Amino acid sequence: MSRPLPSVAFLGAGSMGGAILRGLVADGPAVEGGVFATNRTAEKAAALAGLPGVTSIALADEPDGNARAASEARIVLVGVKPAMVPALLEEIAPVLRDDAIVVSLAAGVTLDTFQRILGDGVSVLRSMPNTPSLVGKGVTGLARGAAATNDDAALVRELFAAVGTVIEVPEERIDALSAISGSGPAYVFLLIEELTRAAVALGFDESDAGRMVEGTFIGAAALLDASDEEPSELRRQVTSPKGTTERAVAVLQEAELAAVFQRAADAAIARAKELAAGA
Questions:
Q1: 145 among the known binding-site residues?
Q2: What is the 3-class SS of 143-189, one letter each residue?
Q3: What pLDDT is stored for residue 1 in this prediction?
Q4: CA–CA separation, 176 vs 27, rounded Å?
Q5: Domains along the chain with CATH numbers
Q6: Residue 13 among known ligand-binding residues
Q7: What pTM was estimated for this model as a whole?
Q8: Which neighbouring-strand residues pair with 128?
Q9: DSSP helix/strand/coil, 205
Q10: Binding site annotation covers 119?
């Protein structure tokens, strides 16, 4: 059984922060000291107010709510938009607990930005979750700052484990991880879109085409999850020699998908570097 987590604050509990919060409350380890969540509007705050153990704060009603939440929590997750991060860090820096662990959910904001504003002695980690965290099937990358201890990192890993798999990497690998697992769901959804279009072109109506393709992707992913085999072996098991699948796969391989995916990942990494530079 997981050890209880210390108090947690979600500063900006939007789609991603809210998903992690819900996963933590529903399936994660117990939280000693409570969970705090801030949102700009009373409407968004109300959506979290009924969750067990959660103190939901509307900044419209309590303008210093971020500072109050940060002062109460051992683990402080920063989930506001990247452009808003520096101002938020300046607001909470004076009230952070001595043992606070600050975790970034903001894409493109470096550990250096956090350390420069909060101070070199503050424990900081940078996270990169993806959208399947909404259904407890996420992949989260974690990079720790110089002041983060092994125990700090372990606590944060336990938090994110409530919504999926956690991979710890050096910060210089975060952009690459984002290009694969962060952007990856979009690549899968694009493949589903295109295969659905192919099904419609073969005469299926959109409803049947959608159910056929989505069911196939969901089933293939479930089979991979349940199997000890590598994806390449599972593909070979579907691909009978001189059969229809072999002919179709040959067409896909002629399209040099490996090179296409490499260019896509490189483009995502290049854009992440632009965002980090403020472009």
A1: no
A2: EECCCCCHHHHHHHHHHHHHHEEEEECCHHHHHHHHHHHHCHHHHHH
A3: 46
A4: 29
A5: 8-170 (3.40.50.720), 184-275 (1.10.3730.10)
A6: yes
A7: 0.90
A8: 141
A9: coil
A10: no
